[in-house]
Amino acid sequence: MKILYLLFPFFLLLVQGAAGSVIECRRRGGFCTFGNCRHASRPIGRCSTFQACCRSMWG
User: Fold this and answer.
1) Which is nearest to 41 in space by CA: 22, 59, 31, 54?
2) Residue 51, Cβ neighbours under 10 Å: how many?
3) Each residue of 16-43: pLDDT tens digit?
4) What's the total number of domains in the chain?
5) Fewest CB atoms less than 10 Å from the CB: which of 7, 51, 53, 54?
6) CB under 8 Å to 24, separation ≥6 — which residues?
7) What is the span of the domain harbouring residue 21?
8) Which of 6-10, 16-20, 51-55: highest mean pLDDT?
9) What DSSP assignment string belongs to 22-56?
């Protein structure tokens, strides 16, 4: 149970850091996806630890 006190601030930092990155990704014309970018898109950044910011190659 004592480990929960240590993990809670860690999860809050992850959530806080991910919120602004999604907005930044969309501002750059991208979209967030889990894992790697889909076919015909390229990575332009990160939305969160597990999400990549991708942009279509044709648009």
Assistant:
1) 54
2) 18
3) 555 558 889 999 999 999 989 999 999 9
4) 1
5) 7
6) 45, 53
7) 2-56
8) 51-55
9) HHHHHHTT-EEEESSPPTTEEEEEESSSSEEEEEE
